[in-house]
Amino acid sequence: DVKVTQSSRYLVKRTGEKVFLECVQDMDHENMFWYRQDPGLGLRLIYFSYDVKMKEKGDIPEGYSVSREKKERFSLILESASTNQTSMYLCASSLEFSGANTGELFFGEGSRLTVL
Amino acid sequence: KNEVEQSPQNLTAQEGEFITINCSYSVGISALHWLQQHPGGGIVSLFMLSSGKKKHGRLIATINIQEKHSSLHITASHPRDSAVYICAVLMDSNYQLIWGAGTKLIIKP
To answer: Mean pLDDT over residues A28-57, rounded?
Structure first.
């Protein structure tokens, strides 16, 4: 079974703190994603990576950065957390999207971040 | 205008009822995903389809590419089916995923 593991289910941080959210997948997937999910807004893409050291901005990258030094690991970094970054963060992975291979999505359990 | 529209937004039904959730989209796609999210839980992929129909247990997903429409059906619904069901499409132009807002389903015993 594909497993996508997020490092923390619940975090509480203070405004201005640096926050690391880690995601690890064990199926050699090329694609990895970071989403945030807020009530009434659905899933919004923060960043996407299609290969090691490659990253693409999603719809809401401001205030976030990412790192993908190894294929299995995709980290989301909040350099200076703010209260409006309180949210559920979801990591996902898939095989590369190409033609007939359209990549089933596998999600982690989510990390609920509260910034005070 | 959203490129992926789901309906209804909320649906409450009695156990045993046949459930239909709809997804309409306005872009060219390579594939359409149906996913399920239980309260407080992660998201699980149910189906990925690009044509026709797929069935898994009591769940059936259909897609009509010409009409740009997909439906997710649940037969003999059960309270454990209560969840948010999300439709997402993979655009064929740039492989971008576009997400629907989700349909919250509650099945009452």
So the answer is: 92
